[in-house]
Amino acid sequence: xxxxxxxxxxxxxxxxxxxxxxxxxxxxxxxxxxxxxxxxxxxxxxxxxxxxxxxxxxxxxxxxxxxxxxxxxxxxxxxxxxxxxxxxxxxxxxxxxxxxxxxxxxxxxxxxxxxxxxxxxxxxxxxxxxxxxxxxxxxxxxxxxxxxxxxxxxxxxxxxxxxxxxxxxxxxxxxxxxxxxxxxxxxxxxxxxxxxxxxxxxxxxxxxxxxxxxxxxxxxxxxxxxxxxxxxxxxxxxxxxxxxxxxxxxxxxxxxxxxxxxxxxxxxxxxxxxxxxxxxxxxxxxxxxxxxxxxxxxxxxxxxxxxxxxxxxxxxxxxxxxxxxxxxxxxxxxxxxxxxxxxxxxxxxxxxxxxxxxxxxxxxxxxxxxxxxxxxxxxxxxxxxxxxxxxxxxxxxxxxxxxxxxxxxxxxxxxxxxxxxxxxxxxxxxxxxxxxxxxxxxxxxxxxxxxxxxxxxxxxxxxxxxxxxxxxxxxxxxxxxxxxxxxxxxxxxxxxxxxxxxxxxxxxxxxxxxxxxxxxxxxxxxxxxxxxxxxxxxxxxxxxxxxxxxxxxxxxxxxxxxxxxxxxxxxxxxxxxxxxxxxxxxxxxxxxxxxxxxxxxxxxxxxxxxxxxxxxxxxxxxxxxxxxxxxxxxxxxxxxxxxxxxxxxxxxxxxxxxxxxxxxxxxxxxxxxxxxxxxxxxxxxxxxxxxxxxxxxxxxxxxxxxxxxxxxxxxxxxxxxxxxxxxxxxxxxxxxxxxxxxxxxxxxxxxxxxxxxxxx
Length: 760
Fold this sequence. Notes:
This protein is α/β, with parallel strands linked by helices. The chain contains 27 helices and 21 strands. It has an 8-stranded parallel β-sheet with strand order 1-10-9-8-7-6-5-2. Strands 15-17-18-19-20-21 form a 6-stranded parallel β-sheet. The protein is globular, with a radius of gyration of 26 Å. It starts with a strand and ends with a helix.
């Protein structure tokens, strides 16, 4: 009798200690050669494969590795390179590859946006004038490497053509482009089949979104073509991040296996399976281990789910796998020996998830895994029963939320007049989003402080000196509203996680956000409570150095939970409200200390939207509530700012207004100003800053470019509403380029102010 097999969908690229990131940045900074980069990344790649092999995973993904982003990999595989990078044909060189993502002096970087509702960013393909061609078979290269070096008969991973095109720009001729791509994909598959590959994983997460049923015909046509061109190659059509609206139709598509998410599906996948059944000629790849969160699986509950699935799909036609790629979680909790034992016992990072997959697979195959199951139960019982998840005061406060006022005293039109009276800002006021460059010196001082090489007093003196230096830089630049620079913070979410009860920071819990940018999401493992002021000291010190207003800088509840690993034993909105109550006290403390401009950033609000529109209203209502819970207790003349990025804002413009922030800043330059179209259709009554240059690229924009972005916005937004700012925080940029770009921004603004004096 055939056995149940285990499978993985993708493995973290970063390495246990961010070795991948360091190799990339050393190459970009000309510290290592291309040959060294290729050698170092190959070693990391093979190490990851060997770990999966040693863990006992049956179907090991290959080709999930990337030098930057898997969507960008797909673009260069098919020669889809924007014209401004002067590519003609053939294999895309590594430097051109990086230029597409990072930009260069005479060419802006391609747009970057969030991968569905995760915190991973992909490089948006640009299809205008695209003439697809197969430049290299990356999947074949990685398949043959794994087989040659480790004896692994791997499962090549591809991004499916429909998902790829749906995520791209300039896809107006969707069917025409699809018809061009499909034969090229077919060539990739045929070469894999010829090389001996048995399985290929083709990711089509678009299937888990809301779309018109007629679009299923594209999938039928595409995958019929693939089976015809490579009939011996088994195709696993992989979906993830949600349930399938058209489950009955999707499972009948002409492939050998269907991958379904049984974790982030709201219980709908098992219901659909039991309602519609499953074809007798297919394998069900059941995603039962959470690929996006870090909490230990309840193996007994997971096995019960698999047994329930097995009543519909015989065990010999089952594959056990994560709900998605493990790209979204850290590598191993073995790197966190200093964590509290109870918390550590409740965690499961990528390597531990592989072990969970193997344990469940063995259980289905009637092998003895009693010890693994008992250990999992003990770990979960300990954390669920701990005082961290049973804070009576926090739980009582949540029960009493109906008694908390979440409305400003005056409407916006009245309170903005009070704010203008004391702020006395010029037309088109300039500011930044919050952070300034975290130089090597800043990072070293923080490291020395954490290692106790320097004292608390020495570290605080350094932070104050750096804050004062940047206050003077901002004054010299003639910015209107200043920030303290956030030199004491490692990350805008992690920092708050270090200060609030119920959170835990990690040392090596790194995950990829975009390119070489890695973040350490804090662990929200218990009830969240305010214990001491978080930002007041630094904000007050910065304000004492200048007569210009300095913004207090906070991160809002939904972003904190979207960019954290949140406990999975209570609903997210409960955690968001706990965070909101805690931050409400911080906002009040800032105001009491004399900080009268307070920015509460919500950049992840849009990215957290459920993939199904039917779930949007509750999510957005909950998001607005937690934001107002945080911000509405201030006086009318205290100005509340917020910031958002990477989004199609037309979908949520009503929600943005409902937040009732006095000023909102929004990314616009990376998407080449497309958000401005929203304001051509919708009147917005509050003040707004549309980011006028892209901070994710090292290139310095010209004054003319920035003026072009400002002028375009002023066609649809009243100048009296408009603020001028960069797209996002400047933490990842270098000092020289930051100052140059901000100087261009201020100069551009001043020139336009002069024009308004003459013409308005």
